[in-house]
Amino acid sequence: MYVNRVNEENIFQSFNSEYVSALLGARQIGKTTLVLNFKELHSEYHWVMFNMDSLDERREIESGKLREIIENRVHQKIGLNGKIWVIVDEAQKCPELFDQIKIIYDENKGKNKIKFILTGSAHLSLHQLGAETLAGRIQLLHLREFNLTENVLLKKKIPLPTNSIFEAIYQCREKEFFEHLVDQIQPFSRLYQEALVEQLLWGGLPDVLKKSSHNERFGYLRDYLQTYLEKDIRAIQTISDLALYRQLMEVTAEQTGSVRDDDKIKQALGCARETLRKYRGYLYATSMYDEIYPYIGSILKRIVKSPKGYLFDNGLISYLTGIDSLTILEKTGQIGHRFENWFLKELKVSLDREVKRNNVFYWRTSGGAEVDFVVEIKPAVFPFEVTYSATIDKQKLRNLKNFLKDENKAEIGYYIYMGDYRFNSKEKICFLPAWAIF
């Protein structure tokens, strides 16, 4: 069953534009499924599809025959008898592809004769290849794991509210608007709460969420990790120690949501700093890892400079750490980091729809005051305190108030928790139930 993605409309707009569209994201999150759904919706188009996992197809294109192959498959010259739509899966695995796309694109620019849609699970290399070769010709798009809404739609094909609280936040809406949105989604609160608990334990990989049993999910995650290591990482010539790379993933899983301490990680792994830097770079390049850096703003002298690191999926963290029980997570205190990891994903999904330049930071002073996430969409700033609790933590609330006091670009602070909706007009704090976030 196909699940409509919450950012599908924005992605399809790019597919219908004249530019080359590059859809980026980790493996097995639904990039090809989404592209094939678009293809099915437009079956009347002339389609050509390549998969750069195929050695034969890759060698043909490496020899400079992209134009010839396209024309042979649709039995027509490019520019004659209608537009040709070309899909290239795992495009980053064939760097020779990009110069050929550039030539074909430039020859047909403005003529609406050919469209290239690329997908890739190594976003850094695809981004670099696109920036170097296709500058001014390419639109970079992102697809991430299922968010809460997509998780609910997987289980029940029902009409859900479409107005996003994140969009209301970024548009600086008033108290009454938030009340209206929370009231709209209230009838679905149980479904969203169940989806939230599921994502804290199992993440948002579509095929994991489709599995019905604990063992099936762990089996899929085991195979997913093995395929990633054997297929994606082993192919990288500068990765000489797969065991060390996996150990780094395990450490990253345990440390997700924590400020990065490279000295401790280097000591635990027994590797050189340069090796750690290189291997972590490939984790990031394959969309398996993300970092957020301290927010500077008007409080430069008091910030902590190290980034916080996040392994991309809570299900993979469950597999690597062996902790897949909500009870154990609560007892060990790890539930807070899982909650942060889930919320960061929701943030990123929402920001993928933003046309303005944006960034996600965290705020922490040398005295230990912290706000979990700070979204910057210039000139505005939006601070989020995130806590897996149904009650309000006075210290966390104080930190949020202090940030608002220090940063005049932030109008409202947002407290995301497991409790009920409230809005403190005097303090300018909006308390939002986590299940209502999408």
Task: Write a structural description.
The protein is α/β, with parallel strands linked by helices and 438 residues long. Helix content is 46%, strand content 17%. The chain contains 19 helices and 13 strands. The chain has helices at residues 8-15, 31-41, 55-62, 66-74, 96-107, 123-133, 148-155, 165-170, 175-185, 189-202, 206-210, 214-233, 242-255, 262-269, 273-285, 314-321, 326-332, 335-351, 394-406; strands spanning 20-24, 46-51, 84-89, 114-120, 138-142, 289-294, 308-311, 359-364, 370-377, 380-386, 413-417, 422-424, 429-433. The strands form two sheets. The protein has an eight-stranded mixed β-sheet, with helices on both faces. A five-stranded parallel β-sheet has the order 2-3-4-1-5, sandwiched between helices. A hairpin with a 2-residue loop joins strand 9 (370-377) and strand 10. Helix 7 (148-155) crosses helix 10, helix 10 (189-202) packs across helix 16 (314-321) and helix 13 crosses helix 16 (314-321). The longest helix is centred in the middle third of the chain and has 20 residues, at 214-233. The chain is globular, with a radius of gyration of 23 Å.
